[in-house]
Amino acid sequence: MSLSLSKQTQFGCEVDLLNFFLGCLMVLLMKRNMWLFFVGAGFSYSLIIISSWTDITPQSEDFELHDHLVIQVDSLRHQVPDKMHKLLDKNCEQIKSLLRMESKEVQKLGIWGMGGIGKTTAAKAVFHELSSQFDCICFLANVHEDSNRRGLNYACSRLFSELLGRDVDIDIDAPEIVPSNVMSILGNKKVLIVLDDVNSSEFVEKLIGARHDWLGAGSIVILTSRDRHVLMSARVDVIYEVEAMNFQDSLDLFSLYAFNQTHPETEYEELSKTAVSYAKGIPLALAVLGSSLQCKTKSAWESILNKLRMIPNPKIQEVMILSFNKLADAEKEIFLDIACFFEGRHIDQISRVLDACGFFADIGIKILLDKALITTDSHSCIKMHDLLQEMGRDIVYHESIENPEERSRLWNSPDVMDVLTNNRGTDAVESMFLDMTQIPNLHLSSYAFKKMPNLRLLAFDSGNSSMIKNHVSIPEGLELPANLRYLQWDGYPLNSLPSIRWEKLVDLSMPHSNLQKLWNGAQNMPMLKKIYLPFSTLLIECPDLSGSPNLESISFLGCESLGQFHQSIFTLQKLEELDVSGCTSLTSLCSKTCSPSLKRLYAVGCTNLQECSITTPGDQCKTHLYM
Length: 627
Hints:
The structure is a single chain. By secondary structure, the protein is an alpha/beta fold. It has 6 domains: 15-80, no CATH class; 85-241, P-loop containing nucleotide triphosphate hydrolases (Rossmann fold, 3-Layer(aba) Sandwich); 247-311; 329-389, Arc Repressor Mutant, subunit A, CATH 1.10.10; 399-460 and 471-507; 515-627. Helix content is 32%, strand content 16%. The chain is built from 20 helices and 26 strands. The strands form 7 sheets. A 10-stranded parallel β-sheet has the order 11-12-14-16-17-18-20-22-24-26. Strands 5-6-7-4-8 form a 5-stranded parallel β-sheet, with helices on both faces. Strands 1-2-3 form a 3-stranded antiparallel β-sheet.
């Protein structure tokens, strides 16, 4: 009999799962002396199972098959467990809901998210679901890579050849011009196009035209990209963000790769949960880890997972680092500062410090947000996915594998301890973060920082624990680098500040310190914007702040020994917030010349406060007093 294959459908299931299915199928067929063939190309395939090799003759245009069975790949999806449908298509229904299928307008939709999050999988699922409703369809994968390697004309030829169903040679001399012969054919066709991995809005304009008026009524163009700005510049109608998978779905997907089933084997359950916790909902990481652990012993699992704590998986890193490599130098510095120092801190704090470092933080942070390299939570704190943070730290680690003092940023507690206690600092070190919950008592010399003139960021962090005091022992006369922009020292042990030239400092944070006073007289601190000294219970007085005209926020929360303020605090022209709550020794809070910039004054729990009078010039008072 003559077999004429029907229009081939597009498949959306994962390649590894399909390969596993086909492998099992091949074993069964070989036992019956049967063979299996793929017919098709790109995303279009049919499976042909034949009972005899002699049924196929090279000369015949039509296959003469006896006792044959033809299976369209589309039907394979219906044999995949329901759980797998859920994992593959979790975003599909939400994306479809954003499209107006009854509309006659041409629609453009963007799918956005970090590398490995499943943008392509989501696009494939939507493409598969919708393709039967269109006259012409095309899924162009890796368009950025292909166009860079082979040029725009190649990408155009691919697009129009697939849409028209025949080879088309395109030679575009000017952007935004679609060949007239293509326009005449496709202008009346309802077209579905997916451009996967787009990183330039100009590329989209050149490929499909700025007005896309060559597309027929009801056509849809779907773009996937790691860069939200690219999608916005391409004038998409709506952007769908692909989010990380929840833990249970992550465990199911991981199990498919590790055990070829949607749940872990009993003896591997806890190890599987450890692997899933590492992946943090990223499908790429779940697939890579699951595949690498398949058919391995428990001891091998333990070894591989322990290794991940020190050395990231290279296959995951290869995908993650692509977005980083496309950043400008200043944006890379911001990314690495967040990965190694600032992750979890408020965006305003990060911006003012990095601005002082010359990084144009507002612009850089916006770019990192658009490229899905960072996010913000409901409290406007910067968050970075664990795998991206791991990638950033790995970049710094490889600046000098053997000698941590030659790296630009230090965050690993043993490395920081080694550099500080042995006075091994160098001019390469720009930031240092020490988690004091992970160290024994630390004894520093007064010269511990002398060899680090380029140190910009320094934090001795207690993780919000008020119990860590005197954890670090330092002598009087400690010298800190003049290049510091940010100084955080939780539980600072001395009663006076270390010796430092204050000209560049932007943020001073010493909660739960032993400070009794800050400094004598007015210090020249032109860039200082924040003083944060809560629960410094020995602090007696607020010093002259007239040398800090750019101060915006001051906190003496819980400084119960603080009895008086220097009047200069009320004349600061940029001060917006002052918190003296819990200052139980404070008896008077008065000023006749308070700056009109002061918006919030907190004096809750000042139990001995007898007089409170704040006056601003004329009718400019905008201060809210909280008592």
